[in-house]
Design goal:
The protein contains 17 helices and six strands. The chain has 415 residues and is mostly helical.
Length: 415
């Protein structure tokens, strides 16, 4: 039976307009806290840094702690010191003796890379085991480097050098990500706490030392095929780094003609990429992609380029650092606390919960305590690499393509 007219209309559901989803209110723009004066050395009992953020409760305690404020103050102060300045505005001959020593240390690490060749793993794009030999070599040289900075005791060297080692990547997993990058800033923070890097050195740290560290990490990524730590390209900014975008946005804050949309202009990237970290990162990451279109390769960068000005971009990067780095449990569960960046007394301890050291962890991602035992947390917002699915590096893919004259392994377009 075929229904017609009014009867048919009664059976057809009415088309109702979709309700707009109520967007959550954006996080307030994080201010730069006051950076406390360095503590008295007589009050410091140096200790080997260890993990203290195990549970969500530990993480919440950290976020309300003086150490969280200290890290924010240092990172934001360092970023602000680069405001409206080119990289070339700071030269090696104009910096303090302590800053020059940092550059010497980074040069020493770079030379060590040249002495340890990668193991032949065929056409594999995954982490090369020679990276572990490299880190072992760094550990043997690190003591002398830190004594040259003016550290007086083995316990001080042990604590502070740990952050430098962690800033180079994870030995067991052969991976690297924003958490390791954070360790580099905490290494500098520790030296600041010892009054070796006062605030007048911050422009040199942001525009001379940090770019040199980034070049070193690119060298390591290209040679040892470090895998991206955590969810691959979690922000769509870069597989490995985050802080160059924060510092780089500060550099461009009031630039007279470079706009956020300029990242789509290859001439601007080529001409200005050596002077501004933000442009340098876009130029470098695009070089490892076979599709040269940010809409596909780095969609969040593409979205950010629509911002009205760099002030909006810089504010967004501040929010992202608070929420996506310090505010992410899977990232901060790998953070190490010592005497200079201390945990609160009530936060968990590795030994008490039966957790092995960070160096012995073969998996990344989030862990939880279940019935007194540690277990891995399966997450549904990433690639599942925490469960053993390894993610190849796009840098490694590009290197393999070069070996084959671009006729062999193809570069990865969308990672």
């Amino acid at each position: 039976m075929i229904l017609m007219g009014t009867e048919a209309r009664k059976l057809i559901p009415r088309l109702m307009p979709r309700k707009k989803s109520t967007a959550s209110a954006p996080l307030p723009i994080p201010d730069t806290p006051l950076l406390p004066s360095p503590p008295s050395l007589s009050n410091i009992n140096f200790e080997t840094p260890r993990r203290r953020i195990i549970t969500p409760g530990d993480h919440a305690e950290f976020q309300a702690s003086p150490s969280h404020t200290l890290i924010l103050a240092f990172v934001f102060k360092l970023s602000e010191s680069a405001m409206d300045r080119k990289i070339s505005s700071v030269t090696e001959d104009s910096v303090s003796v302590e800053v020059r020593k940092l550059l010497v240390i980074l040069d020493g690490i770079s030379r060590t890379v040249e002495t340890i060749a990668p193991v032949n793993q065929g056409d594999s794009r995954f982490g090369n085991s020679a990276f572990r030999l490299f880190l072992d070599s760094i550990a043997t040289q690190s003591g002398a480097w830190h004594y040259s900075l003016g550290l007086k005791s083995p316990s001080a060297v042990s604590e502070i050098s740990t952050y430098l080692h962690e800033s180079l990547g994870n030995r067991a997993r052969i991976d690297y990500g924003s958490g390791h990058e954070l360790n580099f800033f905490v290494w500098l923070l520790c030296l600041n706490r010892l009054s070796l890097l006062p605030e007048n050195t911050f422009p040199a740290l942001a525009l001379l030392v940090f770019p040199k560290y980034l070049r070193l990490m690119r060298k390591l990524q290209a040679k040892y095929y470090l895998e991206p730590a955590g969810s691959h390209g979690v922000w769509g900014l870069d597989d490995y780094q985050f802080l160059p975008f924060l510092v780089g946005a500060s550099q461009l804050l009031h630039h007279p003609y470079i706009r956020p949309l300029s990242i789509h202009n290859e001439i601007v990237l080529e001409d200005e990429g050596d002077e501004y970290l933000y442009l340098n990162m876009v130029r470098f990451t695009m070089a490892s992609k076979s599709v040269r279109d940010l809409r596909w390769t780095q969609p969040m960068l593409d979205d950010i380029s629509a911002a009205k000005n760099w002030v909006k971009v810089e504010q967004g990067m501040r929010r992202m650092f608070v929420k996506e780095v310090l505010g992410k449990l899977p990232v901060m569960q790998h953070f190490l606390f010592g005497s200079l960046v201390p945990a609160t007394e009530s936060m968990s301890k590795e030994a008490e919960v039966g957790l092995s050291s960070e160096h012995a962890e073969t998996r990344g991602g989030e862990v939880a305590i279940d019935g007194g035992r540690m277990k891995h947390v399966h997450r549904d917002d990433g690639w599942g690499d925490c469960c053993g699915i390894k993610i190849p590096s796009t840098v490694a893919a590009a290197q393999e393509a070069k070996k084959h004259g671009d006729r062999g392994l193809r570069r990865i377009p969308f990672d």
